[in-house]
Amino acid sequence: MCNAVNREKILNLLNHWRAKLGLDVEVIDETFNMALLALQGPKSPEVLEALGGKDAVDLKIMNFVRNVKLLGKGVFLISRSGWTGEEVRSAGYEIMTTPKHAEEIFKKALELGAKPAGLIARDILRLEMGYVLYGEDISEDINPLEARYWVFSKGKTGYLGYEELRKVMREGVDKVRVGFRLKKKVRSIPRHGHKVFIEDVEVGYVTSGNFSPTLSRPIAMGYVKSRYALFGLEVEIDIRGKRYKAKVVDFPFIKV
Questions:
Q1: What is the pTM of this model?
Q2: What domains are there in the chain, each with its CATH number?
């Protein structure tokens, strides 16, 4: 399961390595035969259990189960995961099944007390946790060490890009992903591409930004030159020609 905008890219990559390694396997794209529901928040365990997913309620984070029935029908997969941070704060699950079954589950979940949430709500939650969005915060031009991204592990070897990452580990990085916390009275929102300054020196840029209702202030993430990646450092963000003070902070913005 990958980010939707990367579907063709990932499919081509899998087929490339399947052929290059001579693997006797078939890669099947099931994108349009599956739907994904994210059931997130402190009441998600009781809603999932009421839907019939008792066997998945106590999953550990980033684990999944197969062959579970919801509303009497089998689903492809249920995982303890999400992109809201709720799977860390309290609980959260992702359910993969057919589009028709997903619609039935969605309607029943609403009857059980679940509330629908749109992309803006999801985007605020993932930003508060410091979760990245492909195309905004990460790309093929940013390596996992610069992004401080959990997919990289020094304990794993031999994977695609391993030697290059070892080289980066030895030589260091030029930029680092950090958070920016603005003052409460500010109502302007930092957006992708806004520049970050210390006095007249440009030291970085914003990749994602939004207003945090919980913190009652704008927050953002982005990259600064590695020598400026100091938590507590005061910087200025240029928002449509006006500079606003912000502090460099670590993730998550809301501690759990």
A1: 0.90
A2: 4-127 (3.30.1360.120), 130-249 (2.40.30.110)
